[in-house]
Write a structure and sequence with these properties.
The chain has five helices and three strands. By secondary structure, it is mostly helical. The protein has two domains: 1-51; 52-177, no CATH class. Helix 1 packs antiparallel against helix 2 and helix 3 (72-94) packs antiparallel against helix 4. The two termini are 38 Å apart.
């Protein structure tokens, strides 16, 4: 299934709409203004759709139908953070400074492990998107429809992988900000 939403396309449509709106304002043509505004609204919707990802425990799914499994370091890191926090809390409750320190250390190691997994997924996703885009373009030029479908799937998987990692990274940044 092909995902026709594109962040780049949304930027181009937004700029085109802004220019059309401006021309309409300068010339007094309300039809151009209205069309320009409509194009900008459509671009906003395209942008949102290009970033739509369902994030579940251990996987990401996108509007293209692609589903990707998270890098194992992401879930193992999250588990180590949870266990580290539990040890730290238990150490505080029973008055064991050693257990609290072990918990802090395990939590920190878990954060690093999860970040490593997120970076792996992000990098792999970007790589698959680029390879899928370039491969699809070459396959299109040579008339290889099977190749185009293969590379479109690669692109969609990469996009899903990248967006899943971005989702988790943003979620963590938001949590730290509050």
């Amino acid at each position: 299934m092909s995902d026709n939403t594109s962040t780049l396309k949304s930027y181009v449509d937004s700029a085109t709409g802004a220019v059309q709106n401006l021309v309409g304002s300068v010339t007094g043509n309300t039809t151009d203004q209205t069309k320009g505004e409509a194009k900008q609204h459509k671009a906003d919707a395209e942008y949102e759709a290009s970033h739509a990802t369902l994030k579940g425990p251990g996987f990401s799914a996108s509007s293209s139908g692609a589903v990707t499994k998270d890098d194992p370091d992401r879930s193992a890191g999250a588990w180590n953070q949870t266990m580290g926090s539990a040890k730290e809390t238990a150490g505080g409750l029973v008055g064991s400074e050693n257990l609290k320190q072990q918990g802090r250390q395990q939590n920190l190691e878990g954060q690093q492990q999860e970040a490593k997994g997120q970076l792996n997924d992000f990098g792999s996703g970007v790589g698959n998107r680029v390879q899928g885009t370039v491969g699809g373009a070459v396959a299109g030029l040579t008339g290889d429809s099977e190749g185009q479908a293969h590379y479109q799937g690669m692109h969609d998987k990469g996009k899903t992988q990248q967006r899943g990692a971005e989702h988790d990274i943003q979620k963590q940044a938001d949590a730290k900000a509050t």
